[in-house]
Amino acid sequence: MSKPLLYSCWMSSCAWRVRIALHLKQIDFNVKTISILKTGEPGDQYSEEFEKINPMKYIPALEIQSLSIINYLEEAYPKRRLLPKDIFQRTKARAISDVICSGIQPLQNLKVQKFSRPDGNLNFEWASFWISQGFSSLENILKESTGDYCVGNEITMADCCLVPQVANARRYKIEVSSYPTIARIDKALQDHEAFRKAHPSQQPDFPKEVPASFASQFK
């Protein structure tokens, strides 16, 4: 099987979760960086070339969307699984992933933020509100499923989704310690090799000077 090619951007939390999954599964992959924010012009995701890869023009791309990518990796590379063997825990892992990837992250997406304001600028208050709402629900869900990690004591796709979203929360000045279960799991995962390798600061397109709006993510 040839190396997967991941279209990625250091600032994309969706790409971040896929990188975690790839490293957890110890899959050797190539990266093509995509600049999603450019001053005075559309990002690379709007190019004709990228539209052929992902018609939705979203990052990341492995010819499929980010949570779909993780599901694909689970089927194509079954070793080092990201879904538990137990059917109930497997369902929990998928449900937690869906809460993050469908109920939280899309609402703080840059496109949605800009659409929510008449002037088309980013709307940090909007993003902060919806992440906080989502984290309140997620905290309660995790209290019923957690062990060392999101689902029991095994790292799953839910953990791949959680860590980048916690970083997003910090970006929007949310006090993560207000959600102790989320904060504990995030802290437990920070020293894991796969999570370190997937971190934005380890990516080839990570800037020498981090934009001010991202600074709180990388304290």
Estimated structural class: mainly alpha
Oligomer: single chain
How do the helices and strands follow one another from N- to C-terminus?
Answer: EHEHHHHHHHH
Uncertain parts: none
Quickly count the helices.
Answer: 9
Neighbour order of strands in the largest sheet:
1-2
Q: Sheet bearing the most strands, described?
A: 2 strands, parallel
The overall average pLDDT, rounded, is 90
Strand content: under 5%
- For the secondary structure, the number of strands is 2
Rg from C-alpha positions? 17 Å
* Helicity range: 40-55%
What is the 3D form?
globular
How widely separated are the two ends?
39 Å
Supply the key terms:
48% helix, two-stranded parallel sheet, 2 strands, 9 helices, mainly alpha, 219 residues
